[in-house]
Amino acid sequence: MPHVPGRSRRRALSRVLTAATAVALAAVTAGTASAGVPGPGSVSTVRPPAAPALRADGRMSPDAPFFSVLAIDGRGDFSYYMPDGKGGLSPRQRSGGDGSRVRTATQVDHDRDGYADATYYLTTGNEVRYAHEGRSQQVATDWGQYDSFFSPGTLGGSKESDILVRDRAGVLWLYLAKADGSLSGRKKVGPGWGQYTAITGRADLTGDGRTDIVARDGKGTLWLYQGTGDTARPFKARTRIGDGWNQFTTLLGTGDVDLDGHADLLARDGKGALWLYKGTGRASAPFKSRALVGKSGWNQYRLLF
Fold first, then answer.
1. Does this model's pTM top 0.90?
2. Please, what is the Cα angle at 108 between 103 and 111, to 5 degrees?
3. Which of 187, 214, 274, 280 could form a disulfide with 174 if both were Cys (CB 3.0 to 4.6 A apart)?
4. Cα dihedral value 86, 89, 90, 96, nearest 10
């Protein structure tokens, strides 16, 4: 297996840590001024992922990116978990900051190097802010009409990761992202998405190099929407993955958790356990059987992203 030089590993880890702290810093600066704004020193003692699983240049594939799992608990405290490269997560690391004004958030990989480098988050005041390199800027307002908000990656072949939102009438909309974090005017994907209780996904789930998503309906059936690479029609007709997904309170696509080159899916059940569905890269069966990541404690978080 390839050896990863220590310098490359440090560079790769630094990218992940920067993204992990960006949203915490931005959440503080978006509200009133606060002491103790987190900086680089507030995230430490994190072990890098297993060296053999990383490419020799310290980079990952944008089709199966390496993202940390960020979490906000009921008090508004930030934490994050690093994938350990074996299908598990590192012990919790506290990131500081006040996330009480964060309604929901999503990480992005705008430079397509396989690592998260920025975060979009929707505040309780219904504004969208873009957090990047320790800075936060407003990129949209009046987004209270949307009840679903996440980035699956790039949907039109550009470098930047785009945003999908669903309005309260069940219509799905696409906002294309620009290099500076700003967003284009919305493009209509289509109606009928109100039937789903969860919509998520990160990067390529089927091995064709295009960004895909999954959606769970009210009966607990999970559906795959394969990407087309065309923003005018970003998804093909849905195909059924399986039933029984109503046992989960949260579905989260964070990229490649076990560093096998395929994007995975995380799921939290009603008892607070966290499960990993390893990706296969096959459209006919995009996930393997689930594996336990943590048997309890994940219900303490009101938001995972």
1. no
2. 155
3. 187
4. 150
